[in-house]
Amino acid sequence: MTGSDTGAGPGRPRVFSGIQPSGDVHLGNYLGAIKRWVRDQDRTESFFCLVDLHALTAPQDPEALRARTRSLCALLLAAGLVPSRSTLFVQSHVPAHAEACWLLNCVTPLGWLHRMTQYKDRAARHESVTTGLLDYPVLMAADILLYRADEVPVGEDQRQHVELARDIAARFNRLYGETLRVPTAVVPEAGARVMGLDDPLVKMSKSLAGRRGHAIRVLDGADEIRRKVMGAVTDPGREIAFSDDPARAGVQNLLGIYQAIRGLSREGVLGELGDVAGYGELKRRVADAVIAELQPIREAHDGLLGDAAELDRLLARGADRARAVAEPTLRAMQHRMGLVVPSGAARRANGIARPAASARRGSGVDAAGERRAAEE
What we know:
The protein is mainly α. The protein folds into two domains: 3-191 and 311-361, HUPs (Rossmann fold); 206-305, Tyrosyl-Transfer RNA Synthetase (Orthogonal Bundle). The protein has helices at 3-6, 27-40, 52-55, 62-79, 96-105, 110-114, 117-124, 131-146, 159-176, 222-230, 249-262, 266-272, 279-305, 308-337, 343-350, 367-374; strands at residues 14-19, 45-50, 86-90, 151-153, 184-186. Strands 1-2-3 form a three-stranded parallel sheet. The chain has a two-stranded parallel ribbon with strand order 4-5.
């Protein structure tokens, strides 16, 4: 497939990433995803999605979900996403996501989903597991593949989902001919996995954000941020150094946060903090850096949230741009699988879907691939 068919063109890769409007956005979300999105939006053709359909895998209060969706839009804009340089939209505003998910369900072996870590973790805790939770990795694959993304910026814990999207895309292409672009997960070295301040062996998480001292919320005030950082768990020592020793995970986490905010190498971090005497002073320096980073975002967010009509207008414009890219991919998938596609849409789809030499004439089904799937 050519660059014009499958990505943003030579020298400017296409990026897709999503974020759920559920829970409070915390420092880990910001450093692992949002800060990178803002930094790279001029280097890439970017599609950023408020994945409200994914949020439905857990019970939601309808009014609260609507409010959080607009608040998240305001937060992303406050953090520096520019609508003229990036496409920002709500997942449910582009019906192609749900439609493509069903098509991909029909080529995804059930065993692949049973191996997903999030599903296994919740099942092991004997939590109520809905079909949506089991299937949401396929919806995530649809999110990515509809936009023919080259790169998917994610935290380390989401790499498995991108690998699944790659497997699904490769299987679809094997069965029906080259149609979907196989994306690459891009994980930043620093800030990709921010750990809980109360337990540096556990990832900072929205689901635990209500636990006292666990997470810094992006919209926390300065006093609250300082209280949480000063209460962060460390070890009994005093050495300010990066370490993979689990016993020193607390200091490692604080240094990683500082590194991601300041955009420094490890050597640069230690150079700036070389005069720090003890963990108390380290925490004060980290708190200062976090407050300086997040306070302008909180203030801009509050101003943007006061104009819901403008936020809705920006999201509607983003959805129009997203549909212009997603719908031709969806029509190509439908055409490949034998569905009758409206004539105008079929012509657009033909620019994406072209036969692969390995596809079997007629059905396009790869017999060896089918045998492998049957064994899953």
